[in-house]
Amino acid sequence: MVNYRYLGNSGLKVSEITYGNWVTHGSQVENDAAVKTVHAALDAGITTFDTADVYANGAAESVLGEAIKGQRRASLEIFTKVYFPTGPKGPNDTGLSRKHIFESIDASLERLGTDYVDLYQAHRFDYETPIEETFQAFADVVRQGKALYIGVSEWTAEQLREGHALAKELGIQLISNQPQYSALWRVIEGKVVPTSRALGISQIVWSPMAQGVLTGKYLPGQPVPAGSRATDEKSGATFIKRFLNDETLTAVQKLKPIADDLGLTMGQLSIAWVLQNDNVAAALVGASRPEQIADNVKASGVTLDESVMSAIDEALNGVVEDDAEITYETSPKQRLV
């Protein structure tokens, strides 16, 4: 079963393995299969589910809502996000304006079939909307009872400081950031994590297996497996390309004996690795089949000692991306519509 951690400086506990439905529900996986994976997650002790309005243009939220229908709402933690273009993608169907936030939260709640979400997240930073407007809207959403807490995704250290100060001033809680993080992608370690620790903000990390590269299924000098994420533009193929080079794939294969010695799969080792960071509250995992969930949850509660962490660093030496400046390139400088 899955262990639980506090999310930021709050009393909210979340399952440290959290189910995310970015590239599965509403697009890659048929709805019946998606529902089965959600039920497998619940059976494994996962109570926390992360989605976004932009995933399959709302369909992912609808599928999740259908999958959790009949469950005790108070026993679940449901997260969603707002920022990217949705609906007909008109000029106000994107960003973090008051108008878009108010319309988006109502649409998300309807699709999810719930009166509130536990965490409402700014999916990126919006350079075209005053941050004061954004946080006033978030504060009103919280006071209306439509969200309990506020989070963000892929914000820089400076943006986190500004957002945290505004949230405190408005009497709401900014408790989380959702960045990409894995043994291969460590850009948050330099600035974002130290700032977050100081502010009482946790990381909910996506792609802990580096889009599947850290499972070891992509081999140097060989074509990518048919039907894998690397072949499907809807499933994050653009994100995985940065890792699909022989140098990185050769280094990743050095992790196999480390995992074998611990009785773990390479995927479990990669999830356990991100959970060793005490600023990480949860690792987001997706699944297209129920058995993948059963496999992933075995990483919960695993402790990697210092010698193992050092061995992983040695194996990946030279292929790790840890440039903190990359965190400043994640949010678009202009809205996408």
Automatic annotation (TrEMBL):
One Pfam family matching this protein: Aldo_ket_red
InterPro entries referenced in this protein's UniProt entry, alphabetically: AKR, K_chnl_volt-dep_bsu_KCNAB-rel, NAD(P)_OxRdtase_dom_sf, NADP_OxRdtase_dom
Domain NADP-dependent oxidoreductase per the UniProt entry, residue ranges: 16-316
SUPFAM superfamilies: NAD(P)-linked oxidoreductase
Keywords: NADP, Oxidoreductase
Protein family membership: Belongs to the shaker potassium channel beta subunit family.
Protein name (database record): Aldo/keto reductase family protein
